Amino acid sequence: MSPAAAASIAFVVLVALFAAFWAWQLKSANAGMIDPIWAFSLGAIAVFYGMASDGDSLARALVATGGGFWGARLGWHLWRRNAGKREDPRYHRFREQWGAAAGRKMFWFLEFQTVISMVLSLAFAVPAWRADKPSVAWVSIAVAIWLASVTGETVADSQLRCFVADPANQGKVCRVGLWRYSRHPNYFFECLHWVAYIALSIGSPWAWLTLLPPVLMAWLLMKLSGVPMLEAHLVHSRPGYAEYMRETSALIPWPPRRG
């Protein structure tokens, strides 16, 4: 199957999936469940591209395995975090701002996620459809980056989950483990994950396209819907968070500043 045909199928399926979710959230009033669905669906695209392409078999296998596992792990983590809970403050804030137009605007907001997903899926498409076999060196680098990123994100998520689950930490700022060195270590490793597919694409004439996903992800998390909206909520709901912001790196893990 050609990459254009596969991308067209993926796009149509995403549009239909997110439209169905929009109809569901009209009754549930919990748009935050789009987060795990987004992760699951993007991981499924990686598996689909790996199976549908006619590129190098090793690159296809790495895309399907790496992207599929990443999506399944992140999706399950987000599902456990959001299912049965109150709506994420970010989405609740949207509803309040949009007022009577919330239903219509939420639809287009959710459908815009399909565009973001398709840009991110370039990281899977380029290596999956490369005709030549990637070098052993670049495969090793790609696997090392992937392992470091997925392991790091899993550890960060686990540390935060355990901290929040302890009643003694209610209302406190998490500064344990990786969270001592970065306010958002999970976001850092999420961005790093997309870099793995750059290494896997080296040698392909379309390798430059794989620069877009990590840049887009970093911009979304640091400038749009991640850090700005999350920290605007936390600085008012967590005593000491403003101090934490002054002392701790926003993204890249780094020794904390004092004073």
UniProtKB/TrEMBL annotation:
<feature type="transmembrane region" description="Helical">
    <location>
        <begin position="187"/>
        <end position="209"/>
    </location>
</feature>
<keyword id="KW-0472">Membrane</keyword>
<feature type="transmembrane region" description="Helical">
    <location>
        <begin position="6"/>
        <end position="24"/>
    </location>
</feature>
<dbReference type="GO" id="GO:0016020">
    <property type="term" value="C:membrane"/>
</dbReference>
<feature type="transmembrane region" description="Helical">
    <location>
        <begin position="107"/>
        <end position="129"/>
    </location>
</feature>
<keyword id="KW-1133">Transmembrane helix</keyword>
<feature type="transmembrane region" description="Helical">
    <location>
        <begin position="36"/>
        <end position="52"/>
    </location>
</feature>
<feature type="transmembrane region" description="Helical">
    <location>
        <begin position="58"/>
        <end position="76"/>
    </location>
</feature>
<dbReference type="Pfam" id="PF06966">
    <property type="entry name" value="DUF1295"/>
</dbReference>
<keyword id="KW-0812">Transmembrane</keyword>
<dbReference type="InterPro" id="IPR010721">
    <property type="entry name" value="UstE-like"/>
</dbReference>
<protein>
    <submittedName>
        <fullName>DUF1295 domain-containing protein</fullName>
    </submittedName>
</protein>
